[in-house]
Model the fold of this input.
Amino acid sequence: MKEVTLKEIAIELGISITTVSKALNNYSDVSPKTKAAVLKLVEQLNYKPNSFAVNLRTKESKTIGLIIPEIVHHFFSNIVNAIIEKAEKKGYLVIILQSNESEKLEKKQIDLLISKRVDGILMSLSNNTKNLDHLRKVIDHNIPLVLFDKISKLIDCSKVIINDRSAGYDATEHLIKSGCKKIAHIRGPLNPQNSIDRFLGYKKALTDYNLPFNNSLIFTCEKVSFEEGYNFAKKIYTEHKDVDGIFAITDLVGIGAVAYFNEVGIKIPQQIAIIGFSNWFMSTVISPSLSTIDQPGFEMGKNALKLLLKEIKAQKKEREFKYKTIVLPTHVIKRNSTSN
Done:
């Protein structure tokens, strides 16, 4: 079906293209009668404005790019829901891309969003991202960028995070106060800042409570998966039978550990206590239910979008914008996998 143009509408009504455009944009210097005639014909002909031409004129695409490591994760799905809900109310469409924890794919996705002339980009880095040139490219193109959850301290932009070090400390302290004396940590990959900070929080809690740090009790995930939680729990039970507590980098890893101990008949929390991270809904339905750190995904998404829209607005009005970092609170949710 042939696309209707402003020129065709103007010819049909015997007015100028400029008058048609002004009528559609509700300019006050166009008479109500002319506006009514234009709107009636537009509806009859099913006219759709050329979004590319509108974008060139307004210098806005009314689209936002969102890159996350995985969509199926409960934490990230909450973030996506918040961003879509709030963006829609502000008249923005969201292009959602999943990096699958791949730096290579992440770079391709950044190039795609730049080529689409998005108004801004929201992003949580993949676990494998080391080179940050693609993020610098976003800033060089003068596109507002907000990082959330998995960030880099080396990139100067707005960020929305939790205090992962404090949260890691709280998780470990909860195990200690539950009576644990020898605590293993199933950590995330070596590179992401949140994985590093949760590990440092774990280590500091041991120091503050005069418990020895043992590097052989640190187990590093590559994919942060259920299978790794299961397999590391098996390794812990086989090689360190005196371990009485585990702090897992995420609930999914913690649930894997719970599954193994249930399988071999180890009582949780009587023989070993386990705490996860993120407050995934599955942590409430397994047996025993998993203690965890509540990570406010919806609030994180809402705040990330709010910061991005503020920067987009400031840029449009050619005003200076000062980058801001928002740190959201976390807390321990005690369930049946810990005894305190």
